[in-house]
Structure to design on (528 residues):
């Protein structure tokens, strides 16, 4: 591999932001784009959909194709680094995509609301990070408001997320008394002035906390800081790169995204600490990003919202080699060669002239429904990347056709939508129903709308008393047969024919698990 390519790989940082809705993910994303020069003005667009609006100008693909892909991948330069920020859809859009995006990143930024601590959605997303031991950097947001004591938040994270915290900055007061943060790493004090944009300002260097300058700047809060620092130094383990890289320790930063405070320090530390693209497991072997041959896998499929066009964009994460526009790769599942002539390289700036992309980058491949989530593309060798799973659904609906003559269309539509990862489809062992499963309820609306628009199927949903699903495996065939016999009413096959156990509650699940200790119940299943 040539030096240029090696350098390109090493300067890439591909990450996702995880948070509970309202913690400040959108606000923080906007500030990060601002530092990257991908947008010129922050705060112009108010809150919630700030990044969405901010980005739509430069992602003209959205206009060209009438679909909303702009917030999915945001690519920008910061210092010498090339950053790919992958959106993890939240709020109403929460879906399996949100989880699956995290299988395509090399690190994660976790945003936590100072007033709320760790919330439910963060816990779920964290579980996905843990599957791959993804390194996590934590940003505690909204210090300009009253919230939990900093040490209590750290306790909360350690307790609920089972990850060791090591603060790299420390807040001085909060809410009205918020004075700024002390950066342990660079031994600098960053002073906060409400409402002002502090992004260019350098901190005051304080090498020794007994320096009287600290008292001049912070008044009585200087002593509080000294005591806090003493306490932390005694109670907290120092930052260890190797623990961070295997996802067992998270460096923590404090700030206020809306005031753009503490964001630059966090971003600077982030680009230096977060790993460049690493090796990735395929079924047959590990694939290094520095291998000469191109390889990548599809982790998300975005359908065209215009029903007249059945084309889709498959989001492919490059894992090795170099992508060149027009290159030919093999789509292994169907054994065909495809020319990547009109692949889109997602860029925040200067999109037009881009002709090559590197490991860590995401490209969009146009197709007409031939690409499935988890599909691998490579130049020659037959490869299949692992670790791109389905996630156990938490919401369920039964589908009833209005016109029974459309049964074939329904089957075709659901098969395809399941392959795209829009929804999961289960067929109970007894009966001929279709039970749909999703991790976010919006997935049901999307499925129904697309069944109608693209497959001409008129169907309705019926509620079904199910809340939990697990994939079943058992090494002992006799036991498995026995289990199947006793639990027929709760068993179904998913769209890939895998045995699944569906039930009404966690309580019922636990009961069954206790009764059948030989049987394995899985929350995720790798897509074949
Ligand atoms: P999300 O993407 O994680 O859902 O959060 P988003 O950035 O949309 O932020 C949620 C709300 O929190 C927004 O309020 C936003 O302005 C506010 N916020 C973000 N960062 C900070 C911060 O550092 N300090 C304070 N005080 N607020 C912050 P909103 O949508 O304008 O209004 P509302 O939701 O409070 O009604």
């Amino acid at each position: 591999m040539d030096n240029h390519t090696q350098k390109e790989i090493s300067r890439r940082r591909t990450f996702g932001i995880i948070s509970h809705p309202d913690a400040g993910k959108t606000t923080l994303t906007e500030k990060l784009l601002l530092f990257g020069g991908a947008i010129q003005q922050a705060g112009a667009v108010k809150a919630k959909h700030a990044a969405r609006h901010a980005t739509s100008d430069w992602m003209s693909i959205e206009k060209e194709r009438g679909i909303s892909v702009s917030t999915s991948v945001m690519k920008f330069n910061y210092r010498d680094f090339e950053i790919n920020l992958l959106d993890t859809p939240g709020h109403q859009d929460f879906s399996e995509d949100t989880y699956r995006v995290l299988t395509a990143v090399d690190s994660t930024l976790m945003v936590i609301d100072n007033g709320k601590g760790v919330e439910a959605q963060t816990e779920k997303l964290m579980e996905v990070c843990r599957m791959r031991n993804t390194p996590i950097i934590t940003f505690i947001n909204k210090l300009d408001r009253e919230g939990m004591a900093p040490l209590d938040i750290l306790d909360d994270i350690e307790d609920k997320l089972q990850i060791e915290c090591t603060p790299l900055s420390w807040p001085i007061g909060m809410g009205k008394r918020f004075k700024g943060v002390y950066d342990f790493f660079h031994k600098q004090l960053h002073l906060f002035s409400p409402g002002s944009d502090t992004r260019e300002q350098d901190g005051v260097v304080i090498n020794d906390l007994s320096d009287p300058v600290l008292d001049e700047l912070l008044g009585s809060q200087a002593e509080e800081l000294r005591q806090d620092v003493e306490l932390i130094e005694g109670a907290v383990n120092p930052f260890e790169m190797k623990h961070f890289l295997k996802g067992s320790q998270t460096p923590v930063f404090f700030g206020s995204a809306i005031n753009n405070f503490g964001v630059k320090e966090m971003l600077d530390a982030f680009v230096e600490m977060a790993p460049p693209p690493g090796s990735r497991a395929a079924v047959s072997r590990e694939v290094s990003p520095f291998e000469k041959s191109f390889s990548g896998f599809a982790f998300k499929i975005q359908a065209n919202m215009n029903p007249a066009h059945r084309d889709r964009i498959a989001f492919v994460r490059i894992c090795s080699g170099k992508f060149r526009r027009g290159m030919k790769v093999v789509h292994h599942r169907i054994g065909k060669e495809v020319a990547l002539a009109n692949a889109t390289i997602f860029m925040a700036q200067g999109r037009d002239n881009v002709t090559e992309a590197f490991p860590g980058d995401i490209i969009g491949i146009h197709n007409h429904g031939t690409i499935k989530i988890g599909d691998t593309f490579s130049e020659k060798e037959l490869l299949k990347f692992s670790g791109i799973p389905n996630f156990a659904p938490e919401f369920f609906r039964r589908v009833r056709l209005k016109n029974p003559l459309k049964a074939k269309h329904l089957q075709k539509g659901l098969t395809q939508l399941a392959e795209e990862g829009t929804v999961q489809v289960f067929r109970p062992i007894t009966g001929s129903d279709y039970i749909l499963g999703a991790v976010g309820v919006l997935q049901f609306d999307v499925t129904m709308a697309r069944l109608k628009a693209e497959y001409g199927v008129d169907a309705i949903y019926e509620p079904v008393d199910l809340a939990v699903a697990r994939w079943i495996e058992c090494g002992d065939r006799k036991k498995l047969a026995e289990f199947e016999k006793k639990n027929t009413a709760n068993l179904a096959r998913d769209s890939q024919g895998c045995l699944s156990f569906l039930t009404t509650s966690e309580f019922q699940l636990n009961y069954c698990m206790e009764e059948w200790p030989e049987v394995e119940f899985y929350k995720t299943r790798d897509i074949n």
